[in-house]
Write a structure and sequence with these properties.
With 216 residues, this protein is an alpha/beta fold. It has one domain: Rossmann fold, CATH 3.40.50. The strands form 2 sheets. Strands 2-3-1-4-8 form a 5-stranded parallel beta sheet, sandwiched between helices. A 3-stranded antiparallel beta sheet has the order 6-5-7. It starts with a strand and ends with a helix. The model has no long low-confidence stretch (mean pLDDT 95). The structure holds BIS(adenosine)-5'-pentaphosphate.
């Protein structure tokens, strides 16, 4: 099963991707996580990407297309994958079509998680992520059992550099301008499924799961 999770920043793509990984055993490919790893490791790619990420802008298409192409060729993607945060522009979607054609694969479903701007801001400013395993929490909606400590691995929780309100609003603006056109792109292909992302985490997962039943 090959999936794309689409939706504005903070809509719950990462949270739902992790639940899909647990249930279906296919890997999550998050371009945001891959770029943050590159930043943490201080690579040239990371140094370049950080400038765009901290400003709430998209990293140039050729950079992310390159990292996704490499990742999709890894053996763990053979039984399926979840693209989280990619594609984010029409050129990225077209590049993905080309990559998949070369690999003899196709996308089964694009899950579009819909959440309005004010809810996105509320969610992101209270988000905390684990430095060690990447688990995602929310201080109010999904708090860790112990302050600043990951329930799963005991790792330290931190707030992302791009999670300040001003940057979140910029990221949302970029989403509306550059990523939202993908809704129509995938609607035309007949593989788009809209999900109400304002429900609680389990309810959203139930709705996604009902869609995924068709592909298992
Ligand atoms: P990326 O890391 O992909 O960020 P994003 O798309 O902005 O999405 P987020 O990770 O902020 O949110 P999410 O939808 O995963 O929500 P989450 O599950 O965490 O990208 C970061 C940056 O990298 C970009 O700005 C760009 O610069 C660059 N980049 C990445 N990919 C790129 C690409 N393809 N092209 C170019 N540049 C790229 O949930 C948010 C919070 O809400 C959490 O606290 C969670 O616990 C809580 N929550 C989740 N679901 C619910 C719910 N149903 N109810 C209540 N709370 C909930």
């Amino acid at each position: 099963m090959n999936l794309i999770l689409l939706g504005p920043p903070g809509s719950g793509k990462g949270t739902q991707a992790k639940l899909i990984v647990e249930k279906y055993g296919i890997p999550q490919i998050s371009t945001g996580d891959m770029l943050r790893d590159a930043v943490a490791q201080g690579t040239e790619l990371g140094k370049e990407a950080k400038k765009y990420m901290d400003a709430g802008q998209l990293v140039p298409d050729e950079v992310v297309i390159g990292i996704v192409k490499e990742r999709l060729q890894q053996p763990d993607c053979e039984k399926g994958f979840i693209l989280d945060g990619f594609p984010r522009t029409i050129p990225q979607a077209e590049a993905l079509d080309k990559m998949l054609e070369e690999l003899g694969k196709n996308i089964d479903a694009v899950i579009n998680i819909q959440v309005p701007e004010e809810e996105v801001v509320k969610r992101i400013v209270n988000r905390r992520s684990c430095r060690n395993c990447g688990a995602v929490y929310h201080l109010i909606y999904n708090p860790p059992k112990e302050d600043n400590k990951c329930d799963k691995c005991g790792g330290e929780l931190y707030q992302r550099d791009d999670d300040k309100e001003e940057t979140v609003r910029q990221r949302y603006k970029v989403y509306k301008e550059q990523t939202e056109p993908l809704v129509e792109y995938y609607e035309k292909k007949g593989i788009l499924y809209n999900v109400d992302g304002t429900k609680n985490i389990d309810e959203v997962f139930n709705d996604i799961n009902a869609i995924l039943q068709k592909f298992t």
